[in-house]
Amino acid sequence: MLNSEQKLTEIIKNQKGSILVFSILILSILTSISLAISAILLPKLRIANDAPNSAVAISAADSGLEWCLYLSRGKPTPEPLPPPSFEDGGSVVVYYPLDSTNIATCVSSESPMSHRAVGSYSGVTRSLEIEETGPPLPPPFTSATGGTITYADSSGLNPRSSPPYSGGYTIHTFTSDGTFTPNGSGNVEVLVVAGGGGGGNSDGTNSTIGGGGGAGGMVEKASHTVTAQDYSVTVGAGGPSFTNGGDSVFDGITAIGGGHGATYGSFSGGSGGGLEGCGGATVGGATTQGNSGGGIGYGFKGGDSANTGLPCATSGGGGAGGAGVNVSGSIAGMGGAGRANSISGVSVTYAGGGGSGYSNWGVAAGAGGSGGGGNGGTSGSPAGVAGTANRGAGGGGAGNMDPPSPGGAGGSGIVIIRYLTP
User: pTM for this one?
Assistant: First the structure.
């Protein structure tokens, strides 16, 4: 019995050492697992904690690149644009080129773009890069020549000959053919108005009387890209009696000359000409002005008539803002309304249609449309009145009186180019 107890005691003594070893092994495993979990979780917790700061740092870097893009395109004119600043303590530094520690100026000479912006906030730093491929962009233009130059304020109003307004507009007005020459690339706003058509003529007592001349077509374009070169500018002439107006053209933007007033038939143009009295035609001249060179075109048809017998009233020429007024019984048609535009710094109405002529049979002459349209001829002055020069207005139709009388000449066109003063 004693021997059995002694053996049991010896076995228990031997197992105490094994338990100790096993316990140490278990603790080592648990410690390793804990350290591994900590190694995984702690960086993630740090990242999660830095996320708001990281977002601010990225925003700072993005602001730096946007500032750099703005400067490199020559946009902040005429005053320089300071680097971005942040009230919450963020900061940004832009470097050029990408792998350099040279602080960028972001002017147009740093082209093609290869910039790195480093934003910082609360110890967190984030970097963004921009790299431009292809040939360098041409420099933005800082001046241009051609036409008569005036200046408007930042609202595009209050024009003056000098000096330029800070942050305002430079305006080049062409009332005759010329050349527009910018010294670099950029965008300009353009208005192109063609010459107005002449009014229809008359052959004297008891003859047909003249319809009003159609206004020149009108094209507006809010943004047109130019580069450093010479651009020919063509300003359409107003058409003489019974003659269409001339086209006006700038860099692929074409305004079509107005159709002349009728002595017989009907005649199309930028805006269509009005009908003659007692000539048999019933539909006024069509407009042929459409959109051109990316700009929006404006032009309307001449007035209609169902009047093929006495008292032979005539219809007005179309304008850029409305069709010529139709004949209504013994009432002669007025010229179609023009269209207003403020590119010159003041609101000006261009391209009014010409009014129709007076008849021996008691029909009053039609008035010219707003925008310079010429009035029709009257009993005391049978020749049609000319359309206003450099408005592209139609001439008035001639009245039916001896001696034979001409229609009024159409008004010449105009081309105006405007851009932010560099």
Answer: 0.71
